[in-house]
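Handoff note, outgoing to incoming analyst
You'll be picking up this chain. Sequence as last confirmed:
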Amino acid sequence: MGLRLRGLRKDAGFTGRALADAIGWHFTRISKIENAVQAPSDLDIRVWCAACGAEDQVTDLIAQARTIQSMYMEFRHRTRSGMKQLMLSAQPLYEQTTRFRIYEHNAIPGILQTPDYVRAMLEFWFRFLDIQNDIDDAVSARMARATVLYQSSKTFAIVLEEAALYTRFGGTDTMTSQLDRLLTAASLPNVSLGIVPRTVDREVIGTAGFWIFDDKLVKLETPTASIEVSQPQEIALYVRMFETLRKPAVYGHGARDLIVNALDAM
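Most recent structure output, in case you need it:
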């Protein structure tokens, strides 16, 4: 953020002191913002851009500033009282979103998971993060969140790597039920389920799963944090990546055949 604002200042021909004089700030405030000692407010960004003749940059810069403030949210902090609240915190976003684009490379995405699959996945994270175990409530909250799948006003474009069909959580019975669930979900009229075969030639493979909510937000997770991206330029890159990742996927009967093959392998 500091580097981008400094670039705007220099492009406009201002020294730090000259820009401070132009907008009525103390000159040290310019230095603090450019060197990341002080975060700019939305108003600071608007004033800065206006003085530099860069009003067209305001929206993107404000989005970047908000992303910097909120993109990295520690799980440990958000799960102090268990996983339930973490699951419920996303419910408003799910309700507000009309277009979901989801890519997962090694597991079934949450919105398609069965209760047993959810339980098998979460058991490890309670131990790993050393947090209060509220697994029954957390599973219920996750399943409640997934009910948006049945709202006809919403669409879901989901791309899975074939490997995700074989990543085992909870044993054979759990996996069999989960794959049956995939077959059912794929038949919904508002769901487009693509699966990328393991043997297909391709340009790239995703290094992490990610979700795109309309064109407003991207979310992805690391072992210890949830990252939220709201900067328009960054979201556009994720959209491009999603379109690239989905090119080699098969749909309809092709996707169904891959799921049935995974079921047979169980």
